[in-house]
Amino acid sequence: MGESAKRYGSRYGKRIRKKVSAVEEKQKKRHRCPKCEFMSLKRQAKGIWKCTKCGNKVAGGAWKPEVEGVGLVKKALKKADDE
Q1: Under 8 Å between Cβ of 24 and 4
Q2: Strand 57-59, strand 48-51: pairing
């Protein structure tokens, strides 16, 4: 279990504390900026991500800058452009 969920002590159960820890670990780590390609994208608020290097702001998911279904949408758009 990560450090972030230790604030709950023994409350709420082990499984929930483990899930909270995993989510917070994802959102607190640095991600790759789509503009400058550096690992400097940090979460500023829910759904708002900002690059500390180039200052680029990106709208994304609450826990990760990319939403799960983005790959499917990009694939569909590329297929539509090819036709």
Answers
A1: yes
A2: antiparallel
Other CB atoms within a 10 A radius of the CB of residue 33 amount to 22
- Cα dihedral 61/58/42/66 (nearest 10): 40
Domains and CATH numbers, the chain: 1-29 (no CATH), 31-83 (2.20.25.30)
What residues does 38 pair with on adjacent strands?
none
**pTM: predicted TM-score of the whole model, two decimal places:** 0.68
At 52, the pLDDT band (50, 70, 90 cuts) reads very high
Backbone angles phi, psi at 78, to 5 degrees: -65, -40
